[in-house]
Amino acid sequence: MNYMKHMRNENGFTLTEVLIVIIVIAILATISVVAYVGITDSARSASINSSVDQWDKVVNLQLSRKTPSSTFNSNFGRSSCLGRAATDFPAEDGFAAGACIDFSNVPGYSDADVDTAVASITTYDDLFFTDESWWSSKRGVFNGKMPSNKVKFSNGIEMRMRGVYAGIEPWANGFWGRSTDQIRFRWMASTSDSESCGKGDNASAWAEGMAAAFGNPTIVSGRVCEMVIVYGEH
């Protein structure tokens, strides 16, 4: 009996034992990777939500002090990526220079064609910031590389957004189907969890409207968030 135990120790582990160890290590590695991805996704979304909170405070503070000018109200549908300058949005990671929104995997279109088609409404616009003084504070701008998230559509299209995107939607004689002037902040969360938007609401319909020209797809993964500030009533 002692001889058999001695031989087993000299020969090492059996093949079955080695396979079991490998399987256990693989399972633990998978769990670690999933946990790490979840942590980084949550941190990225939290960073963007914090930026939105800062923009919200800046704009509401200024709205409490003054009424937007007629020029501001005339910015019919003007929108922009929120940053210090266009250089905050370099050409990297598939984004075009100056852009904060990117579409990819669009059936029948090259990525370059899609970028050209949506460039006028997905880029940094200096004019967006020139009409009202509160934009100059730039308190919600990220330091360093702007975090990005993406949503996936039912036909395989991916839409990515980095940082925060904003649009001015004045009453415009009821064009928008509402009786108020509004500023809308939009951004993306990494998960579909309702809490991932922080203080914002779900704005999937807006993103699906932007992708409507590419086959009317619906979002199947990720979440688009929105915060609305009302600055006038009619």
Q: Which characteristics define this entry?
A:
about 20% strand; five-stranded antiparallel β-sheet; alpha+beta; four-stranded antiparallel β-sheet; single chain; 9 strands; about 230 residues
Instruction: Detail the poorly predicted runs.
Output: 3-7
Structural class: alpha+beta
Largest sheet report:
5 strands, antiparallel
Structure summary, number of beta strands: 9
Could you tell me the mean pLDDT?
78
- Kindly report how far apart the N and C termini lie: 95 Å
Radius of gyration: 25 Å
Helical element count? 5
| Oligomer kind | single chain
Strand order of the largest sheet: 1-5-6-9-7
User: What coarse outline follows from CA principal-axis ratios?
Assistant: elongated
Structure report:
With 234 residues, the protein is α+β, with helices and mostly antiparallel strands. Helix content is 33%, strand content 21%. It contains 5 helices and 9 strands; from the N terminus they run αααββαβββββαββ. Strands 1-5-6-9-7 form a 5-stranded antiparallel sheet, sandwiched between helices. A 4-stranded antiparallel sheet has the order 2-4-3-8. Strand 3 and strand 4 form a beta hairpin. The longest helix has 49 residues. It is elongated and about 85 Å long. The chain starts with a helix and ends with a strand. The N terminus is likely disordered.
Task: Tell me the layout of helices and strands.
Blueprint: H1 2-11, H2 15-63, H3 70-73, E1 79-81, E2 101-104, H4 111-118, E3 148-153, E4 158-162, E5 165-169, E6 180-189, E7 201-202, H5 204-210, E8 219-221, E9 223-233
Antiparallel strand pairs: 1-5, 2-4, 3-4, 3-8, 5-6, 6-9, 7-9
